[in-house]
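Figure S7 source data.
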Amino acid sequence: MTTAHESPASEAQISVHWREEDYYQPPAKFIGQANATDPGIFRRFDEGHFPDCFKEYADLLSWDAYWHTTLDTSNPPFWRWFVGGRLNACYNCVDRHLAADRDKAALIWVPEPEAEPTRTITYQELYRQVNEFAALLREDCGLRTGDRVTFHLPMVPELPVAMLACARLGVIHSEVFGGFSGTACGERIADSGSRILVTTDGYYRNGQLVDHKAKADEAVRTANGLGQPVDKVLVWRRHAGQYASRAAMVDGRDFFVDELLAEHHRAVVEPVSMPAEAPLFLMYTSGTTARPKGCQHSTGGYLAYVAGTSKYYQDIHPDDTYWCCADIGWITGHSYIVYGPLALGTTSVVYEGAPTYPDAGRVWRIAERLGVNIFHTAPTTIRMLRKLGPHEPDNYDYHLKHMTTVGEPIEPEVWRWYHDVAGKGEAVVVDTWWQTENGGFLGSTLPALQAMKPGSCGPGVLGVYPVIYDEDGNTVEAGSGKAGNICIRNPWPGIFQTIWGQPDRFEQIYYAKYCRNPKSTDWRDWPYFAGDGAVQAADGYFRILGRVDDVINVAGHRLGTKELESASLTVDQVAEAAAVPVIDEIRGRAVEMYVSLKPGMAPTADVEHAVTAAIEREIGKIARPKNVWIVEDMPKTRSGKIMRRVIAGISNFADVGDVSTLANPEIVEEIRHHIQGEKLAHGEVPRQLTREEADEIRAFGRDA
Ligand code: PRX
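Tokens for the predicted adenosine-5'-monophosphate-propyl ester complex:
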């Protein structure tokens, strides 16, 4: 039990107990065709062969010039991979497949409305579209190598086209997830210094044609307000020749892409040969402060890493039909819908809409119709499919060889449904643990060679050596049953290069905690701090427990408590705000906001709605809180810090620990009475938390 005046129990002090799950072995049929079946691969990637082992990944690519130094550690933690090498990412994903595979489908785009025909884009067609859009970016927008461009695009095929067109020019793309608000997009435009925004008029989601262009106007206003002018907004149209948005096109600023493209018919743009270390893209993610972090990914190291992990961990062969049902607006989509699969020359399915629209059989119908044999999604989607259509897979004749789960811990029971019912017991399942910052997988099982264990991602992947440290930097031994902070002892090619424009913060967040010697140029002195709690079983498999910083993982989306709180504080009446996670059956975690009001302000439903509206406006609908609670005051330490873990305990009907040393201990009972009373009145049935859930809630908000 923790007390309020000391920091909450370090992860290492929390003993975690769970039932050891039985192993599942890969089916013989899978092993018979797998890319990695020789156990010698573990030796080739062991520490004795680091960093040169990654030559095996880099050799999956076509290089214009080979590198002279595999890993340059002279300026830690700014690692440089494949130094001296030159390549073009678009050439690797498109051009080089033309000779043998020009007629093969590169992308199969499935619109959400079932009556609308599926669009197949062959490698030849992709080549044509990418070249024409690259010509437009270069000639109409004046973009050059090193410039940044922001996309605010949903799951339309124009998104991979735009990404590859930028890669062709050496222009750095920064895709903002389509579900983010215009304001959130504008902040990212300003942070990255983009003067071009690429968007669309609308897209289908849950049966609705969503008006998306309106967000662009808000984004441009926000960026302008932050001192970043946007010269041009390029608008793709969801339906050729028709404009689906109610927002007016701004003369001289907004252009329909299809009209501009008419001028670039049959254009061919030579791929620009880029240094391996040139940035390929930015991907913004959340952390402990309100300012989002633009994770900068490299060209050579990143592409080699996603190609290698796609080949061995996704088991992608050129003749597979691979479907990653994630959004390209997140890192999973960049690495494992676009860059990894296309680098290997396979067929990648892109689905526009919601996985359960119009019913819980949709995903399985798509799998049957397209002959999908590799399927990749997040636990939230799996939980939803299981809840809404537990027997739906039986109704469809599809056969998967391989399935992936990513983004959140998966409950063993849900894992078993995924394996037994969704996968019909025919497929291997890989649970892949990693982060936006990492480029590709960090913890998983090599599918033909390592048994699966529900709820555990597996050991470190090839060439990645994880370790668990306690707060003092001591190693927490495998099999000790103790949790701690999972770190990676070594750099790997997919690791991000820096936080765009914030190199000090990069070093501070990810390396300062366990750096043994800031002057050292030996990578062994610079473990990477991932920000996740984990436990390692005696067999070396890791079980990821969740974030140890102030990040809430809602349906696999990272939301920073500070971002939620700053958004709430934009409401006039609000004096203080605190965001906490609540355990949610489908989404894993949901957010509850606690706010206290300025003196004299009335606690009305209008204020609650205004807080929700502010969060939707500043971040997006994905961040909408489950509840907004207006309280008299927040539980605080004597130094005035809000004790988020105390209110998190209340929200989850869990133990709040010793609160006797708070500045205002009496408020805890008052809040508990008020909030839990309302929850019970609204029919919420308190559930006994598992030991791990209780530990997570108790450790939440350590820095608040
Ligand atoms: O807490 C971990 C969780 O998601 C976080 C990373 O989120 P994001 O950067 O949005 O990337 C998600 C997709 C790569 C991690 O810090 N997480 C990710 N994968 C898993 C996971 N938790 C448990 N098991 C996983 N397989």
